[in-house]
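Hello,

Our lab assistant flagged a job as stuck in the queue for most of the afternoon. It eventually completed. Since we weren't sure the result was trustworthy after the delay, we are filing this so someone can double-check. Below is the sequence as submitted and the structure that was eventually returned. Let us know if re-running is recommended.
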Amino acid sequence: MSHSKPGFATRAIHAGQSPDPLTGAVNVPIYASSTYVQEEIGHHKGYEYSRVSNPTRTALEQNLAALEGGTSGHVFGSGMAAITALCTMMKTGDHIVCSDNMYGGTTRLFNQVLVNYGLEFTYVDTSVAENVARALRPQTKLVHIETPTNPMMGLTDIRAVADICHAHKVDLSVDNTFMSPYFQQPIALGADIVMHSTTKFLNGHSDGLGGVLIGTRPEHAETFAFVQKCTGGILSPFECWLLLRGVKTLPVRMRQHDENGRAVATWLSRQKKVQKVFYPGLADHPQHALACKQMTGFGSMISFDLGSQDAANRLLKSVTLCALAESLGGVETLISHPATMTHAAIGVEGRRKLGITDGLVRISVGIEDVQDILADLEQALAKV
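-- returned structure --
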């Protein structure tokens, strides 16, 4: 039985990570060095200064590119630093089309910082591909989508949007944070660039911030490496090492996240006090068929509406196993209130447009024993 490309789990463990030639160490060492000795003028061993490149970082970047099926990976100090780097491809007068329902920090960066540099942004409901086509202008350089969206779990047909973008010679970037490359492969569906907050599922242990851009063309590699060098928002060797360690277990973690996520979503959908559950894995999700087509699992991100902020607060105050905290994608179950936490910045009107109610709760289901997660939710719901 011969096949050219190793499987996903094999790549997660081995891509970019051959044993250390000096010692035989199985794991890539943490190269805690800011600079590197050069033999003579113009002769070095591939490394000159750690803002430009570092061996631990190189291993990670090769690993993440291999998981997404891209040609180059570029890691940054946070997901927001990665999005900022993506936008440095633009210049004054350029236009970007994006999902109207994405992470609040992304819209804050676009609307409060980057507009000051003369970039223009149009937000559309990208779940209808034609909306993207209608929003394109001659100045449009990029379409940026998040699928599923945070926190409403709306999907965008990556293939359909990619076809529209390429017909107009516009790049498509996809924020793949919620699904991870294990469950969704945007590049295989036509995306040009994939972005992650590596803080979430890729790291998986809630112990390090990070972001990555994965490109598909030589000019992406050149541009993103240049931005790393110029702006310096890179990931430290230690955090690169944490991420390499996290990614090794990505496949087994994602399978458990998915199994637990399906069980929790099904249970929530049967509770009388829960008005609505947003989860692509449920048959009543309006885009369930698309989820089955472009994702190989449904993951562990679920939002559900309890009807009022008071009800949400009672639940969130009463959970003991689930941790009331920002972020997602860790091995532990994290639960949050989008209206006052992740999406506070977009304001009442912004939230109303997107359907983010005061009773909406978002849960990132961890990999604990699922009966313990359900028992905690049950006792907390009893207090609502």
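-- support follow-up --
The delay was a queue issue, not a problem with the job. The result is valid. The longest strand covers residues 140-146. The longest helix spans residues 250-268.
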